[in-house]
Amino acid sequence: MEGLLIPIVAIVCTIGLPIIMVIILGVQAQRGRHEERLAMIEKGTVLEEAEKKPNRYPALRNGIVMIGLSLGLIVGLYVDPYLPSYNDYFSFGIPAFTILFGGIGFIVYFFFSRSMQQKERKN
After folding, report:
1. Three-class HEC string of the chain
2. How far apart are the first and last CA of the chain?
3. Which of 28, 48, 65, 92 makes an SS bond possible with 105, Cβ 3.0 to 4.6 Å?
4. Whole-model pTM?
5. Model confidence pLDDT, tens digit, residues 12-55
6. What pLDDT is stored for residue 30 in this prediction?
């Protein structure tokens, strides 16, 4: 029974303590934001949440990024056999192209949404 105490304490400390620390930091951050909002309300200042405009095109963003990810996966599958491989388990082309095309999808979304917002402002 004495030999089991050390592994149990080690597991609890390596898993439990970081989770507890994240919870404590999250609660403190939430309290700080709450106190800041209360102080702003007392002073009569406009909260920044009221000034922010929500994202009006989440479906467009998700669609473009999913198309980019799938194109990256397809390109990665076709290009991967031609890339140098150091061992049988190392395949870098597929994740690299998937992430690359996903990022390109975000950039395309940015330009689409910006042009759509500029058109709305003109009208």
Report:
1. CHHHHHHHHHHHHHHHHHHHHHHHHHHHHHHHHHHHHHHHHHHCCCCHHHHCCCCCCHHHHHHHHHHHHHHHHHHHHHHHHHCCCCCCCCCCHHHHHHHHHHHHHHHHHHHHHHHHHHHHHHC
2. 76
3. 65
4. 0.54
5. 888 888 899 999 999 999 999 899 888 888 888 776 665 566 67
6. 94
